[in-house]
Amino acid sequence: METLTNQLSDRINNLAASATLAMAAKARELRAEGKDIIGLSLGEPDFNTPDFIKDAAIQAVNDNYNSYTPVDGYVELKDAIITKFKRDNKLTYDRSQIVVSTGAKQSLYNVAQVCLNPGDEVLLPCPYWVSYSDIVKLAEGVPVEVETSLDTDFKMTPEQLEAAITPKTKMLWYSSPCNPSGSIYSEAELRALADVLQKHPQIVVVSDEIYEHINYVGGHASMAQFEDMYDRVVTVNGVAKAFAMTGWRIGYIGAPAYIARACNKIQGQVTSGANCIAQRAVITALEAPVSKIQYMVDEFKERRKLILGLLKDIEGFECNEPEGAFYVFPNISHYFGKTLNGTTINNASEFALYILEQANVATVTGEAFGNANCIRISYAASQDQIKQAIARIKKAVS
Ligand code: PMP
Ligand code: GLU
């Protein structure tokens, strides 16, 4: 009997694999072959989850938290999220507006599924986080890239926003602090964007604030804090980054109740809710004062200084100064058309591949983030690894 080899849907055939996860997998593969690869591709804190959070998880196991949870999250967790939103963001939500999911990635997926009809346009200021465009496409939406530049620190101006809006625009998605540029929209900058959005009341905003606490300049602003925007903003957040809990897979939204209800409905058919033990641990994480995780932010700040200093010494690496998150996003287009050690570099993907093969350093091409002139380097790695990696890159391009 003939074996069927491609009964896959157009949906999955047209989906790009996550470039960040693909690069991390490639680095793992090369390491297994014995290569000494330094992985600066994945946005994953290299710290352990703090003990007070691990203890809460152990306690939850012993307390027999083993049953299905409410689909949208334990009430105690929702209350901790409500308190966190009030404490850190001055945002008032009630339980009907909160949905806990299996990572912020699923929160974003849910929102796309419940808000988008085929052909709806979603504005994505570039560079944007790698998964936004494919999550939008999975919901049959149309990602619309909005170009930004180094001059504005990769932030979208009100004029750029206005020019990108069409009658089909349904949503705007952005992250602040931004993955991959590290840029942070100030309150005034968000207000100026909100003024444009006031003229287009059909547009729902997704404000991805997962790097909120990894901020080196202070002052985090949320789009939903503006009264005239509150009713059409979905605030996305999670514990993966600030609490070093990437594998625990908990993210959440604060949203207009009708959107939260819809996310609850889709989750009820897809996951039945997030993991019970992880949810209990996150209650403890969110109830703790933010000062408990400051040591990680302080270390990221040192690493940022280190990597920016080292990159300055490499010809053709043009960087903004990231204000948050743990990435640098240098423009390396200087190398396009040049031949390095017999390899001609035509684009950012080829540059990233060259760096992987010649320097044994894993980074991610900017193309995956909607910017074909840059690469993303994660500095969520030890200072020693950063020093070694940048020295190797310098050697490979000189
Ligand atoms: N948004 C941004 C901007 C991210 O960098 C990430 C990476 N993890 C996510 C969302 C998804 O987070 P989670 O691990 O909670 O799914
Ligand atoms: N958000 C991280 C990154 O951008 C983790 C990888 C992922 O979830 O795609 O590297």
From TrEMBL:
Q: Which GO terms describe its molecular function?
A: pyridoxal phosphate binding; transaminase activity
Q: Where are the transmembrane segments?
A: none
Task: Give the EC number(s) under which this enzyme is classified.
Answer: 2.6.1.-
- PROSITE patterns per UniProt: AA_TRANSFER_CLASS_1 (PS00105)
* Record flagged with keyword Thylakoid: no
- Which InterPro entries does the UniProt record give? Aminotransferase_I/II_large (IPR004839), AspAT/PAT-like (IPR050596), NHTrfase_class1_PyrdxlP-BS (IPR004838), PyrdxlP-dep_Trfase (IPR015424), PyrdxlP-dep_Trfase_major (IPR015421), PyrdxlP-dep_Trfase_small (IPR015422)
Keyword list (alphabetical) reads: Aminotransferase, Pyridoxal phosphate, Transferase
Q: Which Gene3D superfamilies match?
A: Aspartate Aminotransferase, domain 1, Type I PLP-dependent aspartate aminotransferase-like (Major domain)
Q: Which cofactor does it need?
A: pyridoxal 5'-phosphate
Which Gene Ontology terms describe the biological processes this protein takes part in? amino acid metabolic process
Q: So what family is this one in?
A: Belongs to the class-I pyridoxal-phosphate-dependent aminotransferase family.
Protein name, please? Aminotransferase
